[in-house]
Design brief:
This protein is mainly α and 207 residues long. The chain contains ten helices and no strands. The protein has one domain.
């Protein structure tokens, strides 16, 4: 497992973590309504939920490659298609304002720190987007016989990206001034990451 491979995993997962989805929306809404502290606890849960998907993918990796090595090619094709699809969606919807009309969860204000952690975990586990990502794209970036330390490093990357990004979202949406600044740059930010996703998709399909 090389440093270049870990860097590739870092950036491809970062692109997936920051793409619009239920976890990001919930982090934004929680911080808007409940403040940054509760948004941070929620973000920890989102990161842990992503790690659950990552562990499930890594444990099944060896079995998949042993039983049907040809599936690696299929995974690359599916993963590349998914990246290109995300890139298209990001680019197409970049000019649209970010929705904040997530329905209030019953009993949200009664949740303690652990309750928000569990809410973050449940949000990730119920979301099909990370299931598709970790079951396809994620697997194709990990060598079949990676050392144990590499798996630990990859889990650290997943936790850092998902938790860190949603903490940043929580910070942004807990402050009116920075929230307005972020929303004013949404089109540019979404299109930059849409371009990065498209480039990664093409690279994955061609290697």
């Amino acid at each position: 497992m090389t440093l270049a491979a870990l860097i590739a995993i870092y950036f491809v997962h970062l692109a997936a973590a920051i793409s619009p989805g239920p976890a990001v929306l919930l982090a934004a809404r929680t911080s808007l309504n409940e403040g940054m502290a509760r948004g941070v606890y929620l973000s920890i849960g989102i990161g842990l939920g992503a790690c659950v998907w990552a562990v499930a993918a890594m444990f099944g990796l060896a079995i998949v490659f042993q039983v049907a090595p040809a599936l690696l090619i299929a995974l690359k094709v599916i993963g590349a298609g998914y990246l290109l699809y995300l890139a298209y969606k990001l680019w197409k919807h970049a000019p649209e304002p970010m929705a904040t009309d997530l329905p209030d969860a019953p009993g949200t204000r009664k949740r303690g720190p652990l309750g928000f952690v569990w809410l973050g975990i449940a949000t990730q586990l119920a979301n099909p987007k990370p299931a598709v990502f970790f079951g396809t794209i994620f697997l194709t970036f990990i060598p079949p016989h990676a050392p144990v330390w590499a798996y630990a490093a990859i889990l650290g990357i997943v936790m850092f990206n998902d938790c860190g990004w949603n903490i940043l979202v929580s910070r942004i949406f807990s402050l009116d001034r920075t929230r307005r600044g972020y929303l004013s740059l949404k089109t540019t930010i979404d299109r930059i990451f849409g371009g990065l996703l498209a480039a990664l998709g093409l690279k994955l399909a061609l290697t």
